[in-house]
Design brief:
With about 140 residues, the chain is an alpha+beta fold. Helices cover about 45% and strands about 20% of the residues. The chain is globular. It starts with a strand and ends with a strand.
């Protein structure tokens, strides 16, 4: 079946933690993705978007920081403001370049078509633009 990841925007960590109360993320701008892990795949996307090294991205205190856990199969983590800002400001050309490189990265085992990745980048960029405009941060609700 695969893991489900709900990427969403909220104004605070405390408010983001409330998504554990329902079976899906409601009342927040959200992008639902299957098998796009926030620490493995999304950290690589952030590195490509920002030009920052992967290890540096992962060392950011907001990179996949646990803020709430229902049990060992559902939890909420933070995403970095750098990812939000890079996605929000990426123009179409940059998003296409990132999708191409991201699809060929080891995190996808080189086994995905860039045309399948571009809509993911575009959806996340739309979410990031909404979040930045509202002064919100990005989060991920993981469901195993």
């Amino acid at each position: 079946m695969g893991n489900l990841y709900y990427y969403f925007a909220a104004s605070s960590d405390e408010l983001a933690a409330t998504v554990l109360e329902s079976p899906t993320v409601t009342n927040f701008p959200v992008v639902e993705l299957k098998d796009i892990d926030p620490i493995i795949q999304l950290s690589r996307a952030e590195a490509l978007l920002t030009g920052t090294g992967f290890d540096t991205v992962c060392a950011n205190p907001r990179s996949d920081h646990l803020i709430a856990e229902l049990d060992e199969s559902v939890w909420v983590t933070t995403l970095t403001d750098e990812l939000r800002d890079a996605l929000a400001s990426a123009d179409e050309t940059h998003r296409r370049q990132v999708a191409e490189l991201w699809a060929r990265s080891e995190e996808f085992d080189g086994d995905i078509d860039p045309t399948d990745v571009l809509p993911v980048v575009d959806e996340l960029a739309d979410l990031a633009r909404q979040a930045k405009a509202a002064g919100d941060r990005l989060y991920c609700r993981t469901c195993l």
